[in-house]
Design goal:
Layout (H helix, E strand, L loop, with lengths): L1 H35 L5 H6 L3 E5 L2 E5 L3 E5 L7 E4 L10 H34 L3 H37 L3 E3 L1 H25 L12 H6 L1
Antiparallel strand pairs: 1-2, 1-5, 2-3, 3-4
């Protein structure tokens, strides 16, 4: 019976560690894509925008550092950094400030997710209490950084653009994948916490009795 319980626990711990590894890896990839949106290059902003809007007479791609606008008149796409348009476009100041905070927090989330990937791989080879607690801390930190960073930009910049543009808007690839990334990291946090809580207590060491000492 004890052998069966041990096997079930081992398989559960292995499943938790594998889930943590793949969730952290997926989150890391999505966070990196989110970071690509912090660019002043037209193609980078277009491929990894955080916010998108389009209509019959325009296309808009918004990153965390700049936005690309095309009026579909044949003049081509124009990229504008938020710091250069604060005096003549209302949403630029909000997006500039929020973008800087979001990018900084997302970089920290990327670093913590890399640490979590390594620790999750170590746990696959053999679990140690210190490594397990470090995995919980790294996944939790990455989750919080990405969550706060995403909320800052989407709360401030998204609504500022929505008030100014007054057109239908939706999440771009960068914003949507960052959202998916911190959801995956949230799953990693949960499975690692469960893994720590299910860790069996160490067997108590036997204390020599008087009879044992006398026999020796």
């Amino acid at each position: 019976c004890l052998h069966i319980i041990f096997q079930l626990f081992f398989n559960m711990a292995l499943a938790h560690n594998l889930t943590s590894l793949f969730c952290c890896l997926g989150a890391w990839i999505f966070f990196v894509i989110g970071c690509i949106g912090n660019s002043s290059d037209v193609e980078n902003v277009k491929h990894a925008p955080w916010i998108r809007s389009q209509g019959k007479d325009f296309d808009l791609w918004v990153g965390t550092q700049a936005f690309v606008y095309d009026d579909n008149s044949g003049s081509g796409e124009q990229i504008t950094k938020f710091r250069s348009c604060e005096s003549n476009i209302d949403f630029c100041t909000n997006c500039k400030d929020a973008g800087r905070v979001t990018f900084a927090l997302l970089v920290i989330a990327v670093i913590f997710s890399m640490v979590a990937i390594i620790l999750s791989a170590i746990n696959l080879g053999g679990e140690h209490s210190s490594v397990q607690y470090a995995t919980v801390a790294s996944t939790g930190s990455s989750f919080v950084m990405a969550l706060v960073g995403w909320c800052v930009f989407m709360r401030r910049c998204y609504h500022a653009i929505d008030d100014d543009v007054s057109r239908d808007m939706y999440y771009g690839a960068g914003g949507a994948l960052t959202l998916l990334g911190y959801l995956l990291m949230g799953i990693a946090v949960i499975v690692n916490v469960v893994n720590v809580m299910n860790k069996p207590a160490a067997a108590p060491q036997s204390v020599p009795t008087q009879e044992t000492n006398a026999a020796v």
